[in-house]
Specification:
By secondary structure, this protein is an alpha/beta fold. It has 2 domains: about 230 residues, no CATH class; about 350 residues, Alkaline Phosphatase, subunit A, CATH 3.40.720. The protein contains 19 helices and 16 strands. Helix 1 packs antiparallel against helix 2, helix 6 crosses helix 8 and helix 7 packs across helix 8. The longest helix has about 55 residues. The two termini are about 50 Å apart.
């Protein structure tokens, strides 16, 4: 094609360089992603835009400069020389004579032409309109090539590049390997590309060009959105995004998308030749650049993916509903259970918690951290995380020094943990020899349909305009259950409260034998999205945090009632607690109020008394010594139990408020010291703000 002459080579080269070497923006993805440079991305986008613009107008600029000298010379001869003036005068006279002759000839033929025109105008109207829309002089090979280029560009931006790039950034937190993901992703990429090519190839003429303009504009807008038009929503940890705070940005973002889509069509209307060059240049830049960028991303992440693929263990459902006849220690972790939720439910229904006989509600308990990871590993191991290393490195070191649970193990306790593996440990070796329901199985199968459904949804959240992002919003628990055990192996535990309740109802609690037992049961609890009704069942329509919390307690009440019927309630130690309080929107960067997790505790002993409330200043650091002491072991080295904390204690309690990066503001942690009643913000004393080293 003449338009793509050699002068386009440097333009395309510059553009490809910009795409290849730009740092891709951190995705608002499943796990907190790496930091990117917005400045370089913006400069890259400007360079690409300028490159295309220069290429579009280069030919006209060049022709203007080349003919400028000749035009000036002719103008000088006509106006400033005698010969030129005479020639100009003769030229004008000749044009007048020719015009007169033409007019007379036209009058002579006007009658014949009018009659013919009147007879054929009506018949010609319909075919001329169709020809205008669908008429096409291009060969089928040309139309096929153009259709394929646009179609595979669309599939590259929204499928292949987006999904594989997300996996490269978050592979350590996703329950499948590149070997599971790549074949299915390639199949989806080629399938979408081929189907779209066939659909476009069936079109012709201006209709084909307009549709291709829309496809290319859509791909360009999606690429720009994922590259540097996404606001920082923080981690997708389940906290609902305050979409109303993005109203202005959403409007601007929507206008930008519309301008991009319309711009490509306008170029087609203005000049088909320029449009051809623009479509081919943009498609080539994004296709080649995305391919090279993926190669670079996977080269950098290869070692990490190799290490992650070596870990195939999982927490199974084994022994989930079998308890000991002698002593059970059961911890129900109700994720995001906030103390204010307990107060609200009690105010609305003063008798709601009556089934918790023998329990005490510690109303000013504090957590060490503001999120599940590292709250859960810390409470189970007793090992603090100071954000001076990665979470994975911390968890491995913490479990190596988990002396409390190892003391229970040495005392003959069966140790079971029912939770999502990524909240608990980093590598299979962390659980080896300690957790009895942990299964190491190299032949784990992956539900490919569920895997792709979630990855496509996650990619849509990254690539879609802000106005459409609520449709693609998801929380991390949606990836639970993707891995499936082979036939004959215990089923993996899935963080799905309604599913847990269905199994509890189907199997029921049974008494196993005399071996004492420790069970840690992680429930999704008060964590959004809210899809549980007040009876603990899945709700097809969204509920709310109060209804969902009531539903989770309904599940726990049923579990405890079965224990009472079996006669093992009194000789069991039971703790119901939140790993942290309510999440605060990531755009809020200064904490100005207390955040307290809920806590209920029942020791071994007669358990007929109604539930009580205590204002003892407890913390999650009291959990491990309580469990050790309730097993009849010496807990002095681990600290005070819940019962041992005095009501007037002035011991310092520490709290770390984790803030993921937001916009240009980097990640940080605020450390607080709490002395006295934790419900009073005046007792929270700011110590320091410190940078975070996170995965």
């Amino acid at each position: 094609m003449k338009f793509l002459s050699r002068r386009w080579i440097p333009v395309i080269a510059v553009g490809v360089g910009c795409v290849v070497f730009r740092p891709r923006q951190a995705q608002a993805a499943y796990i907190d992603p790496a930091t990117s440079s917005y400045l370089i991305q913006v400069v890259s986008g400007l360079v690409i835009t300028l490159s295309v613009a220069i290429g579009v107008f280069f030919r006209k600029i060049q022709l203007f400069i080349v003919t400028l000298g000749a035009r000036l010379s002719a103008w000088r001869v006509r106006l400033f020389t005698k010969t030129g003036r005479q020639a100009e005068k003769a030229h004008k006279a000749r044009r007048v004579r020719e015009s007169s002759a033409t007019v007379r000839a036209n009058y002579a033929s006007i009658a014949v032409a009018s009659a013919a025109l009147a007879g054929t105008a009506s018949a010609a109207a319909t075919p001329s309109k169709r020809a205008f829309l669908f008429g096409d002089s291009r060969s089928w090979q040309a139309r096929l090539g153009l259709s394929a280029l646009a179609s595979f560009l669309l599939a590259m931006v929204f499928v292949l590049y987006s999904i594989l790039d997300l996996f490269a950034s978050n592979n350590a937190q996703l329950p499948f390997t590149i070997g599971d993901l790549l074949p299915v992703t390639l199949g989806l990429f080629f399938g979408l590309g081929l189907v779209a090519t066939l659909v476009l190839f069936l079109l012709r003429g201006r209709v084909l060009d307009v549709v291709i303009s829309g496809v290319v504009g859509l791909a360009l807008a999606g690429w720009l959105q994922s590259s540097f038009m996404n606001p920082d929503f923080g981690q997708l940890m389940g906290a609902t995004i305050a979409w109303q705070s993005y109203t202005k940005l959403t409007a601007i973002n929507t206008v930008v998308w519309l301008l991009i889509l319309v711009a490509v069509v306008i170029v087609r209307v203005a000049s088909r030749k320029v449009w051809y060059g623009l479509v081919i240049a943009l498609s080539s830049l994004l296709l080649v650049g995305s391919t090279v960028s993926l190669i670079a991303s996977y080269s950098a992440a290869a070692s990490a993916m190799s290490a992650a693929s070596a870990d195939t263990g999982y927490f199974s459902y084994a022994n989930a509903f079998d308890l000991s006849s002698t002593h059970n220690e059961i911890v129900f972790l109700v994720d995001t259970l906030d103390a204010t939720l307990i107060d609200t439910i009690r105010q609305q229904n003063p008798n709601f918690f009556d089934p918790l006989t023998g329990f005490t509600n510690y109303a000013q308990d504090t957590s060490r951290y503001s999120q599940t990871d590292p709250s859960v590993p810390e409470m189970l191991t007793g090992q603090d995380f100071f954000y001076t290393t990665t979470w994975d490195a911390y968890k491995t070191a913490a479990w190596q020094n988990a002396s409390g649970l190892r003391a229970l193990k040495a005392a003959g306790y069966l140790i079971n943990i029912y939770s999502d593996q990524y909240d608990i440990y980093a590598h299979d070796s962390d659980m080896a020899g300690l957790v009895d329901n942990f299964v190491t199985q190299s032949s784990m199968q992956v539900n490919k349909g569920a895997m792709m459904k979630n990855m496509v949804k996650l990619a849509g959240f990254v690539d879609a305009p802000i106005i459409a992002k609520p449709t693609f919003w998801m929380d991390g628990t949606e990836f639970s259950g993707i891995r499936q055990a082979p036939a004959g192996s215990p089923a993996p535990f899935v963080l799905d409260d309604p599913s847990f309740y269905l199994q509890l109802q189907a199997q029921g609690i049974s008494v196993r034998d005399a071996q004492p037992q420790f069970d840690f049961i992680h429930l999704d609890g008060s964590h959004s999205p809210f899809r549980i009704d007040a009876n603990g069942a899945f709700s097809p329509t969204p509920t709310d945090v109060i209804t969902q919390t009531e539903g989770v307690f309904h599940i726990i009440f049923d579990y405890l009632n079965q224990m009472k019927q079996l006669g093992i309630y009194d000789n069991s130690t039971i703790v119901i607690l939140g790993d942290h309080g309510t999440h605060v929107d990531p755009q809020i960067r200064v904490l100005d109020h207390p955040i307290l997790p809920g806590l209920w505790y029942k020791p071994v002993g007669p358990s007929t008394a109604p539930p009580q409330i205590s204002l003892a200043p407890t913390s999650q650091q009291n959990l491990l010594p309580t469990l050790v002491a309730q097993a009849g072991l010496d807990a002095t080295a681990y600290g005070q139990t819940y019962e041992e904390v005095p009501l007037d204690s002035t011991d310092s309690r520490l709290y770390v408020w984790y803030r993921p990066k937001y916009g240009t503001d980097p990640s940080f942690g605020d450390r607080y010291e709490i002395i006295g009643d934790a419900r009073d913000w005046a007792n929270w004393h700011f110590i320091e703000k410190f940078p975070l080293i996170v995965d």
